[in-house]
Write a structure and sequence with these properties.
Elements lengths: L4 H21 L8 H18 L6 H30 L7 H20 L6 E4 L2 E7 L1 H26 L5 H30 L10 H19 L5 H12 L3 E5 L5 E4 L17 H6 L2 E3 L2 H10 L5 E9 L2 E13 L5 E10 L1 H43 L7 E2 H17 L4 E8 L2 H8 L1 H18 L5 E6 L2 E7 L3 H16 L2 E3 L6 E3 L2 E8 L13 H21 L5 E3 L8
Parallel strand pairs: 9-11, 15-16
Antiparallel strand pairs: 1-2, 3-4, 3-8, 5-6, 6-7, 7-8, 10-12, 10-15, 11-12, 13-14
Helix pairs in contact: 1-2, 1-7, 2-3, 2-7, 3-4, 3-5, 4-5, 5-6, 6-7, 13-14, 14-15
GO molecular function, one term: diguanylate cyclase activity
Organism: Paenibacillus polysaccharolyticus
InterPro entries: Diguanylate_Cyclase, GGDEF_dom, HisKA_7TM, Nucleotide_cyclase, PAS-like_dom_sf, Rev_trsase/Diguanyl_cyclase
């Protein structure tokens, strides 16, 4: 066996040792296991190259050769994926894009395994230790070059972008050296061992050496910048579990850190520039946006916040945006810490409570209206209680309640007043002759005549049966006599027509009046018991009415109150 074949095995062992070292010395998450996938693919090349030289069976030799190139085909996609992690672009990688990233590599690997018509590799001298490559080999090389070119574009873009944090730029620069070393050795291997194989002897292990050296650059980046450091990973996990959106901006307002929750609030990623003015102009704001923006730009040691409203999936979402400056030990501003808190549910509850309060207020107003209507109904009911239903005059109860207090006030302030009690003459005969229906009509028509004959300030009441009493405030004896005569004449001239050709009825009234207008007894006290005094007044005016009836009816008689009897 050619001693040079042990060269590939040695490189395989070294790569395996490096992989064990990295796995043993760093604490990783599932997210970063992509490196070990990449590292495993790198290990397959030298191992399979070595294994193909240990057997004389052409079938096994072909198997190891194809397996090594399958690993190489997939190595390009692994390299690109690792590049995305190193540059910080992996968070923008959707599931669909991740699948598309591996499609070219899988197509190349399928062509390698199928090896139709020996379009990939063909044996020389009866085996595959010495071999020639067909067109599909160059297809695989083209896919690999495409992956590496894409990785280079992404890395150079990260290096020269002002949005890329300084630490990531350093990681990318070192990784670029690893790509350069691998590309140099892989190109040298293709030129010397493929293109010039007819004229030059085979030099084994060039690509394996390039893979090993480039992997050392990756290991340096991992160890130097603590890519898999447990504290950093734990810190990131804690930040990502917080339900509030968190973004860290540097002094140039470039996003250097953003947790997963922030993606639900804004469509920005690490490396993007954040313009607070543009953001506020694109959303609805509750509060003073200018004042908030001024505080934000001044970078004072002061927490400022504002509520923003964003339309999302056809719904309005309310967020509390808080901004606080990040300063060093000398209080020099280094950037901003932004937090987004979703308060949509709280606003919904507040809106619901306001609506319920408004509904309750409307119900209270309705209850007030019902209360007012009930009060009006009670007033009307009280009027019904205090009003005679037949004649619509006040009844005796109302008169008693009204005069019980007023007559005492009149005596206290020496204001004259009069009472007039009248009775329909021969009313019983009318009822007996014409019936109660006609009697009721006589009462109604008499009440109308009385109502038209008295003043608006006088109080007309149905005292009982066919008797009516009129209270005349501020009325002296002479005026009371005039009003009484006017009332008597109005009733006498009021002809009541009967239905069904029964003719007309002419009625008369007897009137008794009592006037309280002589206040000569000024030294006498005002009676304390208004009810007893009122009974005396009613008794005096009733006696005057009795005298009018005794003297022939249809006349007015004046009564006198007995003094000193209270």
């Amino acid at each position: 066996m050619n001693p040079l074949v042990w060269y590939d095995l040695s490189l395989f062992v070294l790569l395996f040792g490096v992989g064990v070292y990295v796995f043993a010395t760093v604490r990783i998450t599932n997210l970063h296991k992509v490196y070990f996938l990449f590292h495993g693919l790198m290990m397959m090349w030298p191992f399979c190259q070595f294994a193909s030289t240990l057997t004389d069976d052409p079938g096994l030799q072909l198997f190891y050769v194809l397996l090594s190139f399958v690993a190489v085909s997939l190595l390009g996609s692994g390299w690109l994926l690792l590049t995305l992690f190193i540059t910080g672009y992996a968070e923008r990688l959707s599931q669909r894009r991740l699948v598309m990233l591996f499609v070219p590599a899988v197509i190349g690997a399928i062509g390698v395994v199928a090896n139709p018509w020996h379009d990939f590799v063909m044996p020389l001298e009866g085996g595959y230790i010495e071999r020639a490559y067909g067109p599909w080999f160059w297809v695989v090389m083209f896919i690999l070059v495409s992956y590496f070119v894409t990785s280079l574009v992404i890395m150079f873009r990260a290096v020269f972008s002002s949005k890329t944090p300084a630490m990531i730029k350093k990681q990318v620069k070192i990784t670029l050296w690893g790509i350069f070393v691998l590309a140099m050795f892989a190109t040298l291997d293709a030129v010397l061992n493929v293109l010039l194989s007819r004229w030059l002897p085979i030099i084994p292990g060039l690509t394996s050496l390039g893979i090993f050296l480039s992997d050392l650059f990756f290991v340096y980046v991992i160890k130097r910048y603590n890519v898999f450091n447990l504290v950093s990973i734990a810190h990131e996990d804690v930040i990502n579990t917080i339900p509030y959106g968190i973004m860290v901006l540097d002094e140039n307002e470039v996003i250097v850190e953003a947790n997963k929750a922030s993606r639900a609030f804004v469509e920005h990623h690490v490396g993007d520039t954040w313009d607070m003015g543009v953001f506020l102009a694109g959303v609805s704001v509750e509060g003073n946006a200018r004042k908030f923006l001024n505080k934000y730009r001044l970078k004072k040691m002061e927490l400022c916040q504002i509520e923003v409203i964003v339309e999302k999936d056809g719904q309005l979402c309310h967020y509390i945006l808080q901004s606080s400056p990040i300063v060093d030990s000398a209080l020099a501003p280094l950037g901003h810490l932004l937090t987004f808190q979703d308060v949509s549910q709280e606003r919904f509850y507040a809106k619901t409570m306001n609506q319920q309060y408004k509904t309750l207020q409307e119900r209270n107003e309705a209850l007030d209206l019902i209360g007012q209507e009930l009060s009006d109904a009670n007033r009307k009911l009280e009027e019904l209680v205090l009003t005679d239903s037949l004649t619509q005059c006040f009844n005796r109860r109302y008169l008693t309640q009204h005069l019980n207090h007023e007559v005492l006030t009149n005596l206290q302030y020496k204001m004259p007043f009069s009472l007039m009690l009248l009775d329909i003459d021969h009313f019983k005969a009318i009822n007996d002759h014409y019936g109660h229906v006609v009697g009721d009509e006589v009462l109604v028509r008499t009440a109308e005549a009385l109502r038209q004959s008295v003043r608006s300030t006088d109080i007309l009441t149905r005292y009982g049966g066919e008797e009516f009493m009129i209270y005349l405030p501020h009325t002296e004896h002479d005026l009371a006599i005039d009003i009484a005569e006017r009332v008597r004449q109005a009733v006498e001239s009021n002809r009541i027509s009967l239905n069904y050709g029964m003719g007309e009825i002419a009625i008369t009234i007897s009137v008794g009046i009592l006037s309280i207008d002589d206040f000569a007894y000024e030294d006498e006290d005002v009676p304390e018991d208004g009810e007893r005094y009122l009974i005396q007044l009613f008794d005096a005016v009733d006696k005057a009415l009795y005298q009018a009836k005794q003297k022939g009816r249809n006349r007015v008689e004046y009564g006198v109150l007995a003094r000193g009897v209270v």
